[in-house]
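Before relying on records like the one below, remember that each one covers exactly one chain. Contacts with other chains, cofactors or solvent are not represented anywhere in the record.
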Amino acid sequence: MEKERVLFIYTRISTFIKGDLDILGKKFPVTTLVVDNSSKIKQFFSITNEFFYLLFNILRYDIVYIWFADYHSFFPVLFSKLFRKKVYLVIGGYDVCRVKKWGYGSFSNPIRGFMTRYSITNASLNLCVSQYIERVARAISPFSKRKILYNGIVFSTDTARIIENHCDSKERLVLCVALSSTPQSFFIKGVDRFINAAKALPDIPFIIVGINSEKLSHLIGEVPANLKIIPKVEHRELAAYYQEASVYCQLSRKESFSLALAEAMYHNCIPVVSNTGGMPEVTGGLGKMVLGDNVAETISAIKEAIESSKSPVFRERVEEKFTAKLREKELLKILLKR
């Protein structure tokens, strides 16, 4: 029997998108279609190319798999519905948000919002990365079909052994990983909140990874002596930072899941996070939950976390709920039971 063919559509590669590509590639012949949305002009031509590709090739595929609902998901969902193909749509966060103040989220634009809502409503199944995202998707489209499918981190047995052996040798260091090169992402990721916490605790070293200091210098302002700002690094390099830090602090204003939070917890960092989006699901009541704009509450939580005894419970939480193996098992169960 010939294997079902998958058309895999995304806008830009990331760790979690590559993870799904690897999973699907184990069981299906997969063709990728990249829609470049790095600029409005590139996005226009990429979506035009997508339209004609689907027009002439949709019949070759049995499954259409799309990361994020947005402009690029509209035509694949439309063609899949017309030609009765199964279409799976991963809802990741930005696609179901609207923050007018910073123009954040697909629903900050009415045309974009229409295409996103159409995609969610007409997909065969929406794969939501957290309970929080599932609730938001349900509010947007009550009759859509949805299932929670958590993101998962990749780890090895050797990595787990190293982490366990170094559980008690972590430094008094507070870490945050937040990819940010625009004012929008600067505020959504709570980078300003993290900087304010560093200023309030001058005797504790802070590191934030993923910041484009040149583009955001007007927002960052004067950098306190205890804060290191590091630009984006390769994903594999993050493990060294997680292993060194004793506290992981994520003070986002919007956060669908936070893979970096799960990775930090896997490395036994004590989480201090804002009570936002899917992060409470990731921590499961472990660590500290704060109101991000309350600096006094944040610094109190950080100081308490710094002085806390180290424990493997954070890694155990991630191993139980948020691994790539668990995501693979659930995703293939969904796709193969059709």
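The chain has two domains: 6-152+323-336, 157-321.
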